[in-house]
């Protein structure tokens, strides 16, 4: 069987081939990358539970270092400009830097303990008012609109604005944050990634340059924003500048993608399952269930990479030390061994334990924020969907091997004949 998660051929509808991979007696190995695909739920959970055997350090190897290897003569200027903006000395580079998502114990525990200060339940809950204010503002006037793009109007600007405000960035730079985040994702994981990495270098360099100025300002004059919480020694052990920059970048990209993709996917699922839409419209208390079932069925991230620290075996397949293992979250969450009738969209399903936010020590730090944003966004959006349908040709999938969601999702009024 030919399958690679990096091949655009399977991006739009990967679920039939996921089912074939789960049914195989051994693990699938990608021909070109020699990556081992873990597709069953129990196997995926075991990988996540064993960081000493399945290292997270390979995350950067798969997602970033491959981009750097493609730097050609025409990219030299952009690379140099990136190094200057990011204040990175190439002579001091010893592989990829560690972040909270690409570190292993014991350093991971230290980083997690520090950044947890900014994600305590009370601190996240305090954002609900602002999330609701923004959501209601974004959908204002859409009820009378003949057609609108859910991603453009709500799913994308909401998490981007919240994350920017959490970090304490200038509100006038939010459009730049959106451009930087999208540019980095597209350049690293889009179908055009085989070309020049100039896009990732340019957007990443601008982002790091701006964030560095914010970090410097908060060290001298801390406020109540997230960056201040991480750098102010009066609140606990501070992070160094490089660690703050990496964390802020991960939060910007991963946090934005999770909520954007969840809201878009939920809208798509509801409009394709009118009985479920009717049910949640009549009973909005089901919206938290809607969020969880959406994230199970349409996981915002397709897979998470790991690297083996010693020889091991999964499903009768020997995996040598140093191998890349791809935990296929989108497949594991539809494993019929774990979820009965797993292909059915069911608001009453027990989704506890789904892997949409990861598992183990790398369980998504921002899960509570993503759940809050998605819930409030859908509470404001669902009442507008009862007389809507998907526009023919109005759905455009995000161009990424890593994330699954929509870059565009147009909805329009139900035609009079259909409504009758």
Report on this structure.
With 420 residues, the chain is of the alpha+beta class. The protein has a single domain, classed as Cytochrome P450 (Cytochrome p450). The protein contains 18 helices and ten strands. It has a five-stranded mixed sheet with strand order 1-2-8-5-3, with helices on both faces. A three-stranded antiparallel sheet has the order 4-10-9. A hairpin with a 6-residue loop joins strand 1 (28-29) and strand 2. Helix 4 packs parallel to helix 11 (198-220), helix 7 (128-139) packs parallel to helix 17 and helix 10 (174-189) packs across helix 11 (198-220). The chain is globular, with a radius of gyration of 21 Å. Mean pLDDT is 88; it is low at 90-95.
Would you summarize the structure shown here?
Helix content is 49%, strand content 10%. By secondary structure, it is of the alpha+beta class. It has helices at residues 15-23, 41-49, 58-69, 76-86, 107-115, 121-125, 128-139, 150-155, 157-167, 174-189, 198-220, 226-231, 241-272, 274-282, 287-297, 329-332, 367-381, 416-419; strands at 28-29, 36-38, 54-55, 147-149, 304-308, 312-314, 317-319, 324-327, 388-397, 406-413.
């Amino acid at each position: 069987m030919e399958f690679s998660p990096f091949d655009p051929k399977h991006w739009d509808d990967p679920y039939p081939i996921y089912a074939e991979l789960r049914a195989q007696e051994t693990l699938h190995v990608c021909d070109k990358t020699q990556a081992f695909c873990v597709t069953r739920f129990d196997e995926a959970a075991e990988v996540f539970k064993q960081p000493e055997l399945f290292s997270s350090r390979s995350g950067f190897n798969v997602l970033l270092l491959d981009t750097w290897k493609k730097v050609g003569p025409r990219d030299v200027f952009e690379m140099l400009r990136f190094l200057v903006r990011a204040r990175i000395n190439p002579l001091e580079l010893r592989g990829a830097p560690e972040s909270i998502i690409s570190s292993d114990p014991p350093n991971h525990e230290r980083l997690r303990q520090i950044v947890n200060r900014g994600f305590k339940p009370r601190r996240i809950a305090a954002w609900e008012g602002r999330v609701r204010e923004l959501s209601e503002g974004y959908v204002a006037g859409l009820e009378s609109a003949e057609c609108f793009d859910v991603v453009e109007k709500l799913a994308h600007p909401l998490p981007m604005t919240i994350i920017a405000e959490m970090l304490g960035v200038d509100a006038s730079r939010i459009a730049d944050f959106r451009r930087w985040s999208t540019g980095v994702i597209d350049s690293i994981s889009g179908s055009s990634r085989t070309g020049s990495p100039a896009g990732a270098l340019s957007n990443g360099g601008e982002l790091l340059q701006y964030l560095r100025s914010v970090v410097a300002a908060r060290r001298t004059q801390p406020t109540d924003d997230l960056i201040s919480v991480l750098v102010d020694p009066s609140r606990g052990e501070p992070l160094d500048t490089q660690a703050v920059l990496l964390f802020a970048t991960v939060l910007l990209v991963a946090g934005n993608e999770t909520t954007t993709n969840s809201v878009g996917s939920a809208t798509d699922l509801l409009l394709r399952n009118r009985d479920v839409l009717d049910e949640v419209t009549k009973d909005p208390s089901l919206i938290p269930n809607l969020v969880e079932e959406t994230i199970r069925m349409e996981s915002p991230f397709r897979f998470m990479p790991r690297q083996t620290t010693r020889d091991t075996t999964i499903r009768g397949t020997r995996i040598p030390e140093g191998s890349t293992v791809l935990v296929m979250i989108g497949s594991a969450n539809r494993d019929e061994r774990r979820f009965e009738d797993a292909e059915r969209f069911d608001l009453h399903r027990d989704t506890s334990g789904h892997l949409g936010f990861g598992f183990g020590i790398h369980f998504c730090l921002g899960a509570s924020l993503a759940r809050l944003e998605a819930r409030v966004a859908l509470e404001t959006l669902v009442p507008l969907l009862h007389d809507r349908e998907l526009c023919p040709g109005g759905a455009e999938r995000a161009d990424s091997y890593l994330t699954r969601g929509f870059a565009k999702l147009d909805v329009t009024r139900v035609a009079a004949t259909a409504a009758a």
